[in-house]
Structures are given as C-alpha cells and as structure tokens.
Write a structure and sequence with these properties.
The chain is an alpha+beta fold. The protein has 17 helices and seven strands. The protein has a five-stranded antiparallel β-sheet. The chain has a two-stranded antiparallel sheet with strand order 1-2.
Length: 414
C-alpha cells in the first residue's frame, strides 16, 4: 500500500512538472519511464482528481490532458476496453466514438466537391444525426459520471463534461453553417471546412481520453452488478445509431421483470420489499395517501420535480412521461453541483447559500429549448419552524400557457 501511495505522489510531481514545462514532455517521459510503465487508468484518474483538490485549476488540467496522453501513451495503449459484449454500456459508448468520427470523415468528403442536390440532402442528414448524438453525452453525464462520482472519481468526469460543452458549442456553429450552405450560400465554405476539421480533431482527442482513461477506470471501479441498471438507463435516454443488442447474460437475474428493486418494478413493490408503505397510508396532514398514489400523483403532474436535500444531494425526481431534462436513477445521492456544467456551479452554489441563509426563498429562470419556452423555478423547502430541508426544482414547458388568451370555463368542456 505504501508503495502505491509513493507511486501516486511521484506521478503527481511528474504531472506538475509537465504543466510547468510542457515543451519538455519528451525529456520528462525518458526520465520517468520506470514510473510510467506501471500506470493504470484508475491511478491516473485518481491522481488528476487529487491535483485539482490541491489547487490546480480544473480548466488548466483539461487543457493539459492531451500532453498527459502523449506522456503515458505506451502504458495506456493496451488499456482501451476490449472483449466486452456489444450491448455493454462501455462497448456502446466506444463504438459510438468510432461512428462519430466516421460521420466527420463523410462530412469532409462531401465538402471536398461542389454541392449537388444529393449531397445537400446527405449534409442535412448528417447534421440531424449529430443533433441526435446529444444523447451520447447525456448518457455519459447522467448515467456513467454519477456512478464514477459515487466511487470517488469526481474530477475526471467533470473535465470530460467541460469538453462536452466545448463540443456542443462547436456543433452549434457547424449546424448554422450547414443550414447556410443548404440555403445556397456557399460563400463561407472554406471556413466551414476548417470548422469540420477542428471538431473532428477535438472529438478524436476527447474520445481517446475517455477510451484510454475514463472507460477502463469505470470498468475497474463499477461493480458488475451495477451495469444492468446502467444499461436500462441508457435505453431510457436513447441512442444515436440504432438500438444496441440486448445482453441477457450481463443483465442476469436482477433485470427479471417484476423482481423487487429491479428495473421496471413498481414503486409500491419496491416499498414492500423495503418494508415500507404497503397497504398503509402516509399521513400528510391535509390528507393520507398510499405510496402508490403519491408516486403516481407526482408522475402525473405537468411539471418535472427534482428535490435536493439539505446536504445538496439529489434525493428524488419525478418520472413523468415526457421529461424536459434527462434524469436517471443513477443521480440519486449525487451532489447537485456535479449535475451541472462547471461554468454554472457558482450560480447553483449562490442560490443554495442564499436559501440556507434565508436571504431568499425562490429563484427562477426561463430558456428557449428548440421551439419551446421552459420555465425553471427553485424553491427553498422549510419545515414549520423555518429549518431548511432542501430545495425543490420545478421545470415546466410554458409554451402553450404563454399563448392563452381570454378564458375557458369548466362548463365549456361539457
């Protein structure tokens, strides 16, 4: 154990040296070849996290990850996930990485020649495919990352999420350029080709970091029994290139339909299995409801509800049929700060600090999401004595409500 601690400390010194003199990465690699030989992806992930906790800015670490990959290339060449069944969550993500790069290759080939009707149509299809590709990143952020955080790997997922936001910005520019080209404006085609190349190179670098460090670390720290539920949550969010094959040998008995606590089991069944509720009623003061009634009531409301407890941990979310923002059961117990991109965390903390101190009791925002207007409201939840219990987030599509005029009475619906 002491040898492992010493090796990690030496690795930290090595990475600090790389940050200070990145131009000397070749010399540093030669000097520390004996140290690099025994590295594992998990060790790298843990050390990078400790560096951030010790004060290294996360953004600086993100920008230096490419240097890390070059430094550790030999030790990581064999670490890329292999031998997994095709339907395993990590196998799905890894395959999609290759497919995204093939899409970018095709984009470059299309742009190498004058655009005709057929190539314009294909350009629009590739644009739509990349838009649907958002669910690839949502699966990582809402299923994989929370599981890593629960096992102490926090900063590496946060760094990858930062890169997801960079990818999103680059894709938005790409989509706008495709729309201009398809409208007949080819004046900026050269710049568009540069944007395609830049995104392709960024994706290639990003995917290497995940394939060689993040995914192998995930396979090492996430227990085999957890992957079936993660696959179920992947299925809920959806896929880019078609539904992957089922993997019953991975799912095992835990995924059997109706088993208490298994995916697909009802809330009342889970409550019975845990010794809670059953036929009994929960006294809510203004009425009494069964667990089944309460669960279905929340899931029927035309709003999405998320409750964060007094320790800033996600404790509950409603499972409405058409959620506006993705939520998976993997986020239960997750620090709410890790549910937001790094650039928004300071805003989240300010709202929570104000709620806890009693400086304010609610906050609200509204955003355009495609052609929808989304209202997001946060309310401090307090007991009758005023003690802070947590924060509830209410998200609602108010597009139709904004258009209402006049009145419609109950009798009008008869």
């Amino acid at each position: 154990m002491s040898e492992l601690i010493t090796k990690k400390e030496n690795l930290k010194k090595l990475l600090r040296q790389v940050h200070e003199t990145p131009e000397k990465v070749g010399e540093i690699k030669a000097a520390f070849r004996h140290l690099l030989a025994g590295l594992t992806p998990t060790m790298i992930a843990e050390v990078e996290q400790e560096l951030v906790e010790e004060g290294l800015p996360a953004e600086k670490l993100r920008l230096m990850c490419d240097v890390h990959l070059e430094l550790m290339k030999e030790s990581l060449d064999e670490s890329e996930p292999a031998g997994l069944p095709p339907g395993h969550p990590i196998a799905i993500l890894t395959k999609e990485h290759s497919q995204f790069l093939e899409v970018m290759d095709e984009l470059r080939r299309l742009l190498a020649s004058p655009l005709q009707d057929g190539s314009r149509k294909r350009l629009a299809e590739l644009r739509d495919l990349l838009k649907v590709g958002e669910n690839h990143y949502l699966r990582e952020e809402n299923v994989l990352f929370p599981q890593l955080e629960k096992r102490g790997i926090v900063q590496p997922p946060a760094i990858m999420w930062q890169e997801h936001d960079v990818i999103r910005d680059m894709k938005r520019r790409l989509f706008a350029a495709i729309d201009r080209l398809n409208s007949g404006n080819e004046g900026g085609k050269a710049g568009f080709i540069d944007d395609v190349i830049a995104l392709q190179e960024f994706l290639s670098s990003h995917f290497q970091k995940e394939n060689k460090i993040l995914f192998p670390a995930a396979l090492q720290v996430i227990e085999r029994s957890v992957w079936p539920e993660m696959r179920r949550e992947f299925d809920e969010i959806g896929y880019v290139f078609g539904e992957p094959a089922p993997i019953p040998h991975l799912m095992g008995k835990a995924a059997a339909s109706g088993a208490p606590g298994a995916p697909g089991a009802g809330a009342a069944e889970k409550a019975d299995a845990a010794g809670e509720g059953g036929p009994g009623l929960i006294d809510l003061g203004s009425g009494r409801l069964t667990i089944e009634q309460l669960t279905c009531l929340f899931n029927t409301l035309p709003v999405d509800i998320t409750f964060v407890d007094a320790d800033d941990r996600v404790a509950y979310f409603s499972e409405t049929a058409d959620r506006i923002f993705v939520r998976t059961r993997s986020v239960i117990g997750r620090a709410v700060q890790n549910c937001h991109p790094q650039k928004s965390v300071h805003v989240v903390n300010k709202i929570l600090d104000d709620f806890k101190a009693g400086r304010r009791h609610q906050a609200e925002f509204w955003i355009n999401l495609g052609n929808k207007l989304i209202l997001i409201r946060y309310f401090a939840v307090r007991n009758p004595e005023g003690r802070y219990l947590g924060t509830v987030e209410i998200t609602q599509d108010i597009t139709r409500l904004k258009e209402l005029t006049g009145e419609k009475r109950l009798d009008d619906d008869v």
